[in-house]
Design brief:
InterPro entries: G39-like_N_sf (IPR036173). By secondary structure, this protein is mainly alpha-helical. It has 6 helices and no strands. The protein has 2 domains: about 60 residues, Helicase, Ruva Protein, domain 3; about 45 residues, no CATH class.
């Protein structure tokens, strides 16, 4: 990417992330890192980043492809963690059924077994 393309990239980032520092030193440093990068790929990665992240991108994030399903996977992981936490808590707090209920279930099982 040339310096003009880096300036365009910075304008786009600044448009979506008001707290992004778009100073001359940073533009120069990013140009050095993105000089060999494909502009189309970088802009596509920026579009994905904007859709998925609330903070401005780093050079590394613009150079690698972002998994569009990462947010979905993160939600699944969090949901699974919550479920297992609940299951463990329920297991710890559970109590056995009263003996009278256990006897009724045993009697019912015996009657059904004798019918067949």
């Amino acid at each position: 990417m040339n310096k003009l393309e880096i300036a365009e990239l910075f304008r786009e980032i600044k448009l979506h992330y008001a707290n992004f520092d778009a100073g001359a030193d940073k533009r120069e440093a990013w140009h050095k890192r993105l000089e060999q990068a494909d502009k189309t790929a970088v802009m596509q990665n920026l579009d994905q980043h904007i859709k998925l992240r609330e903070f401005p991108p780093t050079v590394a994030e613009l150079l690698k492809t972002i998994d569009p399903y990462q947010g979905y996977h993160d939600n699944l992981k969090e949901s699974a963690h919550e479920l297992f936490t609940d299951l463990n808590q329920w297991r710890e707090n559970s109590v056995a059924p009263p003996e009278s209920l256990r006897e009724k279930v045993r009697d019912l099982a015996i009657r059904r077994a004798n019918r067949n």
